[in-house]
Amino acid sequence: MATNWPENVGIRAIEVLFPSQYVDQTELEQFDGASAGKYTIGLGQAKMGFCSDREDVNSLCLTVVSRLLERHHIKHTEIGRLEVGTETIVDKSKSVKSVLMQLFADSGNTDIEGIDTTNACYGGTAALFNAINWIESSSWDGRYALAVCADIAVYAKGAARPTGGAGAVAMLVGPNAPLVFERGLRATHMEHAYDFYKPDLSSEYPTVDGKLSIQCYLSALDTCYRLYRQKFEKQQAKTQSGKVGLDNFDAILFHTPFCKLVQKSVGRLSFNDFLLTSEGKRAEQFAGLERFNNATLEGTYFDRDVEKAFLTQSADVFEAKTKKTLLLANQVGNMYTPSVYSGLVSLLIGVPAADLVGKRIGVFSYGSGLAASMYSISVTQDAAAFEKFVAQLDYVLPLLNSREKVAPEQFSELMEVREKNNHAAPYTPTGSVGVLFPGTYYLKDVDSLHRRTYERTPTISNGVH
């Protein structure tokens, strides 16, 4: 029997979660004895959200999933697939997804596919792709899929600590979506690298080769972008859209370890466009940059002249297409798997909905080790539906502005508590429950068999904020 292919599959709802406490990066510079501007200007970070020992990856996911279902009035029985992308492992065997099944117990819905997906910051994208693929496959039973990304990014004292953060994003996936994943426009690059990894299972802290990590990120960006361009140009031969390269995108999102890297990444894409432009057209489109005609991708990862020149060349593109996607990254820090999707939320709340209707959003997702993809999202032409979709995010800015600032000294003490009690059992957390946002799940205790139990702070009247 013939079946219809689901149309316009993509994100129908999105929920973002970030910690209720933060440390100011200017104050952290002073506390750490770092030079003024090292974190704020050098990294491009203003504030860093963090979790006390009251929150773990399970509690973050419980909170973000319950809020999405409540806010959008989705019945638990309407979910047929749920997959979690995370690198914050609290159990080597039991998935976070299985913990989330507590939310579905009362509905009797145990028929939900999906488990956890792990590869550094890329796991959330893999979960999202799997959700899209399920909807578009013969396995689909007509219900929605949920892709959940959550992580707590913490580092030992030192230069890497200010690049931490935490958060979660849940995305409801289905047909007839306001944000549609463009078929055939997905490019992936994967290879083996030890740029950032977590071999010590007793610690939350990663092992990081900072220089190699930047090189891996940029080389993966180069490869994914070129593959995406090839696929787009092949499709364009049929559509005759006429746009290539950065002109193809109306907005561009990036995984954001720190904001300054994203600005450099826009410049990197401009450099790729330069190299892919015929010499005859370069003089017209890239005036004054002829001295880089013989430059190569491989030889320029740390070339300051190339970086500076193409940062300048792409400044208008960054300002118009990427800067507003960095709000949450700047204010919360690196969320790991949710990072690039916090950029999507930042774009949706930072640009008038009418300006995004019918536009194309480019997305670059990266996870160390390494895995990366570039793909594109098409915003619906239905202005009313998109306005309604964006309006559901009206809680983000008030929540962001209601956070509690914590002094660096207290932040450091709370990080020491996390470090000392990582995987401790039995254990009763000591972090304040009172500072958590309404409706937040938190860790109540861990028993002698490492079994974790959770409770939820009271919700306010509408049950979701």
Q: Overview of this structure, please?
A:
With about 475 residues, the protein is α/β, with parallel strands linked by helices. It has one domain (about 10-455): Thiolase/Chalcone synthase (Peroxisomal Thiolase, Chain A, domain 1, 3-Layer(aba) Sandwich), CATH 3.40.47.10. The protein is about 35% helix and about 20% strand. It has 16 helices and 16 strands. The chain has helices at about 25-30, 40, 55-70, 95-100, 125-135, 210-240, 260-275, 280-285, 305-315, 315-320, 325-330, 340-350, 355, 385-390, 395-400, 410-420; strands at about 10-15, 20-25, 45-50, 80-85, 115, 145-155, 165-175, 180-190, 195, 205-210, 250-255, 360-365, 370-380, 405, 440-445, 450-455. It has a nine-stranded mixed sheet with strand order 5-4-6-7-1-8-13-12-11, with helices on both faces. A three-stranded mixed sheet has the order 3-2-14. A hairpin with a 3-residue loop joins strand 12 (about 360-365) and strand 13 (about 370-380). The longest helix is centred in the middle third of the chain and has 30 residues, at about 210-240. It is globular, with a radius of gyration of 22 Å. The termini are far apart. InterPro entries: HMG_CoA_synt_AS, HMG_CoA_synt_C_dom, HMG_CoA_synth_N, HMG_CoA_synthase_euk, Thiolase-like. This enzyme condenses acetyl-CoA with acetoacetyl-CoA to form HMG-CoA, which is the substrate for HMG-CoA reductase. Catalyzes the condensation of acetyl-CoA with acetoacetyl-CoA to form HMG-CoA.
